[in-house]
Design a protein that fits this description.
The chain is of the alpha/beta class and 505 residues long. It has helices spanning 7-22, 101-110, 113-118, 140-143, 156-176, 186-199, 212-223, 246-269, 271-274, 280-296, 305-315, 322-333, 338-343, 349-365, 372-383, 390-397, 434-443, 467-479; strands at 54-61, 71-79, 87-92, 119-125, 205-211, 228-236, 421-426, 447-453, 487-490.
Length: 505
């Protein structure tokens, strides 16, 4: 899920952007001529997307229950098969709030040559997102101006101010998102995917989804099982309806703390370089000193406690970020705040749009407590043992307590009618904890689960390639072969403390 809402997607985007940049340059003249699709006119892509792809738009009903009513426009991208095509793969990077058009080229590039020859890969910016008529809920230049309020309340007045901020966000969505707001849900997104399938002229579609994209894929498969060719779900959301989405987010709080302990243990083992302390509790104490320092005087006038919590939790998505975070903490405590300030990325319209979609979809998909006392009780209790994420995650989701629309009943995914599905799950993933892979395996009787043991980075295929997991995925895409039972792969290595962060300087 992104950023707990929007950072996971951002982390995945950054990794794949680096991968794409490392690949061979392709000009528009080098791209294959576009195939004809019955419902999409393919042409050049927007300037922020790869010129090697083709892009187009598709109008879909705002309300799929009223197909003759108003429409909204989806942006769609195509990375074409280089040989005789056997099928089309739709891809989604997660979120909710992750843009998908950029992902088609990156996934196609990551496939082995025979699969690049056999598959078109299609990306979609979900409704209201990116190139698909994007919405906003607030003026991000003022609402997200750094330093943001400290997410950990110390007084009743602090809580009241943060509750008012959450309510203002919900009110902003109601005011700014307009007629689309009642129709921003996973079910709506799944119906959109089927419209894309039909517009491509495909009787069946394959699908690869990461993070929230696994839930979207599971819901699509539940609604349209007869239209699924092959499906891979990587870094898996727990699909059980009782957890959508309040319970899932509480589970994330616990999982992020466990991943933070992985980080503190790593930093402690490299105390000779990082100087944050020789034990995990010492690294915790170092973070506390950083937080106390920026609480008194934001680093660079920008980085306060909210930004430090965001940097710390963001690093838990990908251990490639650990060295940069640890060195920035070390240097700050030594009197040099510049590296900490350099890690901060200011808000922009894309991030604000991602958060707006995240909020709208999660608030719509299932019931949230409407009594603030429930949130307060749960967050206070959980913060005692899981402080790295609990309060920041609470405030990210708190607009759902004041959402202007009634939520839908969550879909109960059961896998009936689905062909075999391949599931891939890292055991230490914080954004989508291991319980999600186990629960999805139980929900989809035809599935097989490949567990990447000891791995904690979010997103395996493409984002953090694992040869063992790739082997199962590629075999499945080639001929539909699933392993005879669940399988385990060994995770990757931890970074060196002086490693530079790939794609980030």
């Amino acid at each position: 899920m992104i950023n707990r809402g929007a950072a996971a997607g951002a982390a995945l985007v950054a990794v794949v952007a680096a991968l794409a940049a490392a690949g061979p340059a392709v000009s528009a003249q080098d791209a294959p001529p576009p195939r004809v699709s019955p419902g999409i006119a393919w042409g050049a892509c927007p300037p922020d997307l790869s010129r090697a792809m083709r892009c187009g738009t598709l109008d879909v009903p705002v309300d799929h229950a009223a197909p003759g009513g108003p429409t909204t426009t989806l942006g769609v991208s195509l990375a074409q098969a280089t040989g005789t095509k056997r099928g089309t793969i739709l891809v989604n990077p997660g979120g909710p709030g992750g843009q998908g058009m950029w992902l088609a080229g990156a996934v196609h590039r990551a496939l082995p040559a025979d699969l690049r020859a056999a598959y078109d890969v299609v990306g979609v910016d979900p409704r209201g997102n990116g190139h698909s008529s994007p919405i906003q809920c607030v003026d991000t230049a003022t609402f997200d101006k750094a330093p943001k309020p400290d997410p950990v309340p110390r007084t009743a007045a602090d809580k009241q101010a943060l509750v008012a901020r959450a309510k203002a966000y919900a009110d902003g969505c109601a005011t700014r998102a307009g007629a689309l707001l009642p129709h921003l849900s996973t079910v709506d997104n799944a119906h959109d995917l089927d419209r894309v399938r039909a517009a491509l002229g495909e009787p069946k579609i394959s699908y690869i989804g990461w993070s929230y994209g696994t839930y979207l894929g599971a819901v699509y498969g539940h609604l349209f099982p007869q239209r699924v060719d092959r499906m891979i779900l990587d870094s898996i959301v727990d699909p059980r309806p009782e957890g959508i989405w309040y319970g899932v987010n509480l589970g994330q709080d616990v999982a992020f703390q466990a991943r933070w302990r992985d980080f503190t243990g790593w930093a402690a083992r490299h105390d000779d370089t990082l100087r944050l302390g020789p034990a995990g509790r010492d690294v915790d104490a170092s973070l506390s000193r950083v937080l106390a320092g920026v609480r008194g005087a934001p680093a660079g006038g920008l980085v306060g406690p909210a930004e430090v919590y965001d940097l710390a939790s963001g690093a838990m998505y990908d251990n490639d970020r650990w060295p940069g975070l640890a060195r920035a903490m070390r240097d700050y405590l030594a009197g040099n705040p510049a590296p900490l300030v350099a890690l901060y990325e200011p808000p922009d319209p894309d991030k604000a749009n991602a958060t707006a979609i995240y909020t709208a979809v999660e608030c719509a998909d299932g019931p949230w407590p409407r009594d603030w006392a429930v949130w307060d009780r749960d967050a206070d209790a959980l913060h005692r043992t899981a402080p790295i994420l609990t309060w920041p995650n609470t405030w990210l989701n708190a607009p759902c307590a004041f959402w202007p629309l009634a939520p839908r009943e969550p879909v109960r995914v059961d896998g009936r009618g689905l062909p075999g599905v391949l599931l891939i799950q890292a055991t230490r993933d914080a954004a989508t904890p291991m319980v999600g892979g186990t629960a999805m395996r139980q929900a989809l009787p035809t599935s097989r689960l490949v567990t990447v043991v000891g791995e904690g980075d979010h997103g395996v295929l493409v984002f953090n390639p694992n040869k063992c997991a790739d082997k199962y995925a590629h075999a499945y895409l080639r001929d539909g072969t699933l392993p005879s039972g669940d399988r385990a792969c060994e995770g990757g290595d931890e970074p060196e403390p002086d490693a530079r962060t790939k794609g980030r300087g």
